[in-house]
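Record filed below.
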Amino acid sequence: MPRGRSATYDDQREFILAQAAQLFARRGYPATSMNQVAEACNLSKATLYHYYKDKSSLLISIAETHVSRLAALVVEEEASAHTDEERLRRFIYRIVEEYAGAQDAHRVLTDDVRFLEEEDRERVLNQEREVVAGFARAVSALRPGAPSDDLAKPLTMLLFGMINWMFTWMKPGGRLDHASIAPIVADLFLGGIGAVKSPPAIRRPGGRSVKESG
């Protein structure tokens, strides 16, 4: 009889994906070898191939896992009973929260999907389009003329422009973390710069939080 998978098989796959995502994000997908992934995971190359058949399968899994979580977020929020504004704010909060815990995977999704074979790339991009379409519906619901608003998609892409590139400038341990930046993004997008409020607490280097004065 064939030997079944161990109880830790899925955990090991997730660990490998996390290590590979970190390497791809820092070195770039083309410059990262399976040997380097195996070394980062403290595995032999033969053991690594037991979990993933090649480097492309790693890239596919990283991209699909990340974008599937975003797509699931959209489905959950669209099924909620929140008001239109609450729904869009929750979209923003939740996607920022998701990015906070998956910065390497997000960078890989942003930079490296182009290296996939066409069929795999289109599958990932189609899921991305579903995420964008869900956000566009939430944006459109707050504007006159919904649901045929021809600015919903451009406005949504502007919103993603704020969110998607946070990882290029937000520093770990900085004054603002993802939890405090999410409402700033929502206020700016929904109300303009005059609607933005300082967060009730800011982070000092070293991770200590202090109350804003005034």
Notes: The two ends are 70 Å apart (CA to CA).
